[in-house]
Task: structure prediction
Amino acid sequence: MRTSSRRWIIGLCWLTVMFDGFDIVALGATIPVMTSDAHGHLGVTVEDMTFISTISLVGVGLGAALVGPVSDRLGRRLALMLCILVFSTCTLLFPLMPSVALMAVSRLVAGIGLGGCMPIALTIMQETAPGGRRAGASTFTMTGYHVGAVLASLTAFWAHEHWAWLFIMGGGLGLATLPLMWFKLPETHHSPHPQASAAPERRYGVRDLFTEGRARATIGLWIAAFMGLLLVYGLNTWMPKIMELAGYNISSSLIMLLILNVGAVLGLLIGGRVGDARGIKGTTLVWFAAAAALLALLSVKMTQVLALNLVILVTGVFVFCAQVLVYAFVGYTYPRALVATGMGFTAGVGRLGAIAGPWITGALVSAGLAYPGGFYLFAGVAVIGLLAAAMIPKPEPTVARPASEPAGVTL
Result:
């Protein structure tokens, strides 16, 4: 593949994942404004917005599960563009909806489009990555998620009560990306219709995730993805509140969340390279084990601010990257023609953990058990993720990158 094409693939896939991080934070940032007495919208309540945010995550899970077979049939490029078109259009329409029911419908459909974006982007990155570089390709792409989250936070700070601008910006950026994808994003999925002289290429379906000895790997990937996203969303949603309950002040708790996500970016940049160099299974096990130990350590009240922030930073390095390494595991586990379906269903099941994480942690907060109980829960979840990853068979060694392949844009 030409160096210029690879650069466009990297940039556009990274941008696609950025939309995911932007959207999640944008919706969360608007809830206090939309439900306030001064700037409320359509009289929506906290319960209404809880339902809307939950139905949005349900849509994301559905989109992730459905997109694999669709992209196998239509091709990665067209399927990704359709997902962005659906997500962006419904995002722009969301502030215009005249009722809570229609707002929920728009978020459900937007979630379906958004849910398909990340699995396709990660599949494209893995399909075009040099041999043995799939983990690095996945983890680098996922740094876009955290950049999108930061961008949404800054936009929310600027917009204040004009919350609609968050959705105008998110939807507008998505639509603006489509012309670039049309002209610059190459198709990476080989057509299942061979030339007359070639042998027919096997067509894979969902059932193939459980045939030919793949059931064990599939179940392990699904459980690990569920646990990984439970940690990510549970911590990002409730960590400031848990740390406040532990006796830290509110401003310090928010800084801790920022430090946690800085650690996440560092972990993604480091973990993928380690996974490619040392083996994806061993790296995933180490990352989940370290996450469990560090989360348990956070249950201990620390008086030294520097030590506490250092522990939080390193916790971010391992917790967030452990979940993304599961996605990288998909590329090493399934045949090339089955990666998109495997990635979609792994991400779809993982999104159920994204729904469960905030809900379970919120229940602990309501029951007065969030500190230190929340960190005990998170540590236990990481241990289950470790056990799930351990049951996945070790992938076969990857063929090295050909010497003729351009190296200037590898990850």
Summary: The chain has two domains: 3-184, 206-390. Confidence is low (pLDDT under 50) at residues 192-199, 399-410.
